[in-house]
Design a protein that fits this description.
Shape: elongated
Structural class: mainly beta
Largest sheet: 7 strands, antiparallel
Strand content: 25-35%
Strand order of the largest sheet: 14-15-16-17-18-19-20
Helix content: 10-25%
Number of helices: 6
Distance between the termini: 46 Å
Number of strands: 31
């Protein structure tokens, strides 16, 4: 039996857009998509409302969902709006979005809120004793399936008391009408605007028996609903007018997804189910290395790591190479302020007056005929620098060709990185991300203050959004940026070790 899901939206962050809707719709991918609100919420009136009438909110929800006003009912007892009979929006969340729509400075389209890192790491589930045993078994089987997923922070556990729970699983009997072709099996609230689990799960006890819905199908349904609790939405079914965003890096269709709206036999998560939850809630493990640094460079083709330390020396600050066997940094002659690693694993540096040097041996540094403020070397050995020549966007970018330095035409930059194929990416003085195209640099969506490319081609930026450790880190997925845990002020990447190396705002060094 294949039965259509119905679901509750308890945390609707809704906007009216005319755009395609996509797989794994979520209503905000990252907090950085929206700048901080600049106004306070209206003070509640004596009834607890935020100063907007039910009629105003009904009109607003009709506008942003595409539903007819007549199709939106308000349940005063539960303080919820019911849209087209099956989607619930709490009054609190409707009011929050109504105010955001009028007062927020939005720079990118938004959608659903996601859980905070602390919430998603421990989603606590309590199953009421009145839930039928077959559904209890299904929920208890669903929890470990999510917990088997690697490289994500998302984790669930059953708790013994209702007061401990984020998701309370409760029963409800609802027999479908004879002429009703689609009927709900289970419901789950989405995250709310505070980044918390928005509410509980309801299972339809009409489907409790094995003859109505197999154990495998119930497990599928429970896994699906837990997916809703962390912000995933239907892969195959979209509501016109909602802000539905495709999770970065996933396709627009996925017939094997557990987040499809049709109950099926549980056969495991699809490739893109796994990718989606890892993108939304990545679990990155950072290893702190000894010492402190001002700049860092990871070798593109070799397991090599160099830093500019914090000890003042002629030319700037001390230069160190990491000894992976001894697990310590070893100081080398010379002084620098910026550093990059060549194809051969040897460093290129910029000193405190902008002179560029290439290290030929332990005691020989070859001076280059260019003055620069930043430097990068691609996996193919191509060298680029940000020169000291003023240019719109910062300074002219130059590259070494046949022993001569040549300028890239067009706009300038302040920071530079180079792909394995020798294509430069850059950041300009307005924080715009650039990449080289025919005729000069072109803008890429996103912003940053430092940039790095590894030998695996992955591109990382340190953004301008303050977080613990400095500023947030993002990774380019080919068409959009996804969040990486942690924070830093300088970044490099070698790819061979699986990711970036950062320096945080205390000078501490962390390798992925």
């Amino acid at each position: 039996m294949r039965t259509m899901f119905n679901y509750r939206i308890a945390a609707a962050c809704l906007r009216n857009i005319n755009a395609p809707v996509f797989l794994f719709i979520i209503l905000t991918i990252f907090q950085a998509c929206k700048e901080p609100d600049q106004t306070e919420m209206p003070k509640p009136d004596s009834a607890g409302n935020q100063g907007t009438t039910t009629a105003e909110l009904t009109s607003f929800l009709a506008e942003v969902t595409g539903a007819l006003p007549a199709g939106i009912a308000y349940n005063e007892a539960e303080k919820t709006f019911v849209i087209d009979g099956d989607m619930e929006v709490s009054r609190e969340n409707a009011e929050k979005q109504y105010v955001d729509e009028k007062t927020s400075r939005v720079t990118q389209r938004r959608g659903q809120w996601l859980l905070t890192s602390s919430s998603v790491k421990d989603v606590k589930v309590y199953i009421l004793p009145t839930v039928p045993d077959t559904w209890k078994t299904a929920v208890r089987a669903a929890i470990p399936e999510w917990n088997k997923v690697t490289d994500t922070q998302a984790r669930f556990r059953e708790v013994p008391a209702v007061v401990m729970a984020d998701v309370i699983v409760k029963p409800e009997y609802d027999k479908p009408d004879e002429d009703e072709e689609k009927h709900w099996v289970a419901r789950q609230a989405l995250p709310n605007y505070l980044g918390q689990v928005g509410g509980g799960m309801t299972v339809n006890t009409y489907y409790s028996s094995q003859s109505m819905l197999s154990a495998s199908e119930k497990k599928f349904a429970a896994i699906h609903e837990l997916g809703h609790s962390i912000g995933l939405m239907h892969t195959d079914k979209h509501t016109d007018g909602f802000v539905d965003f495709q999770v970065c890096g996933t396709p627009s269709m996925d017939s094997k997804s557990v987040m499809n709206s049709v109950v099926d036999i549980w056969g495991g998560f699809s490739t893109y189910d796994l990718l989606a939850v890892r993108i939304l809630y990545p679990a990155h493990t950072w290893q702190q290395l000894p010492g402190s640094a001002r700049d860092v460079a990871a070798g593109s083709n070799t397991k090599t790591l160099w830093i500019v330390g914090n000890t003042p020396v002629p030319g700037g600050y001390s230069i160190h190479k990491y000894d992976y066997n001894a697990k310590k940094f070893v100081q080398y002659p010379g002084g620098a302020t910026r550093i990059a690693i060549g194809k051969d694993g040897e460093p290129w540096i910029i000193n405190n007056i902008g002179l560029v040097y290439r290290r030929l041996s332990s005691s020989i540094w070859q001076e280059q005929t260019v003055v620069a403020s930043d430097i990068a070397v691609g996996g193919n050995g191509q060298v680029y620098v940000v020169s000291k020549k003023a240019r719109a966007g910062g300074y002219a970018v130059s590259y070494l060709k046949n022993g001569q330095w040549q300028d890239v035409p067009g706009r300038g930059a302040t920071k530079i990185a180079v792909t394995p194929q020798g294509i430069p990416w850059a950041v300009d003085n307005a924080g715009k991300v650039l990449r080289l195209a025919a005729g000069g640099f072109e803008e890429v969506t996103g912003s940053g203050r430092d940039i790095a490319v590894g030998n695996d081609g992955m591109i990382y930026v340190i953004r301008n959004v303050a977080v613990s450790g400095g500023y947030s880190i993002r990774k380019w997925m080919g068409s959009c940026w996804v969040q990486v845990s942690g924070g830093g002020v300088a970044i490099s990447s070698n790819g061979a070790n699986g990711g970036p190396v950062v320096i945080n705002d205390q000078g501490k060094i962390f390798q992925y």
